[in-house]
Design brief:
158 residues, six-stranded antiparallel β-barrel, alpha+beta, 43% strand
Length: 158
């Protein structure tokens, strides 16, 4: 297994579940930030959302986005509205997302609404850590730098 493949395995372990990130978008050079639930499938992050939301409108004008978490995980990449969950092309990821987000998916989403959609974020670069190792990853070049890392930040409730 290459270092890059190992890093993807670590990411899959960390993020192939309902994982909350702050999503940064930009419209007319004005940044906007909100928390979203994501799921990482080994290649991309997915978000369940609404086509008329500010984040989707921002992405339509500028697809560059960033994700950041309280644990110092961060990723930058390109976001794309891949359409409604019931589109045949989304069948496989829909199955995964409905299971990953099972406690709330159908309670908060109406698939009969034509404006429901999925966002797919293809990361270009990122940083994450696990078990004392930090990973600086470049998804485009498929390279990763691993190094000793201790996350020593004190977290607050707010």
């Amino acid at each position: 297994m290459t270092d890059f493949e190992n890093a993807i395995t670590v990411m899959t372990d960390l993020f192939s579940k309902d994982y909350q990130f702050a999503l940064a978008t930009c419209d007319n050079n004005i940044p906007s930030l909100r928390f979203v639930d994501t799921y990482f499938d080994g290649y991309a992050f997915y978000i369940v959302t609404y086509a008329l939301s500010q984040k989707v409108r921002d992405i339509a004008g500028n697809s560059n986005v960033s994700l950041c978490s309280r644990r110092m995980y961060s990723f930058s990449g390109i976001a794309d509205n891949i359409g409604h969950p019931l589109m045949p092309v989304n069948a496989q990821i829909r199955d995964t997302l409905t299971k990953a987000f099972e406690p709330w998916y159908f309670m908060h989403n109406d698939e009969s609404d034509s404006n429901m959609c999925y966002l797919k974020i293809q990361p270009a670069t990122g940083f994450f850590h696990k078990d004392g190792t930090g990973y600086k990853i470049n998804f485009i070049e498929k390279t990763v730098e691993a190094f000793p890392f201790a996350c020593d930040i004190g977290y607050t409730e707010e």
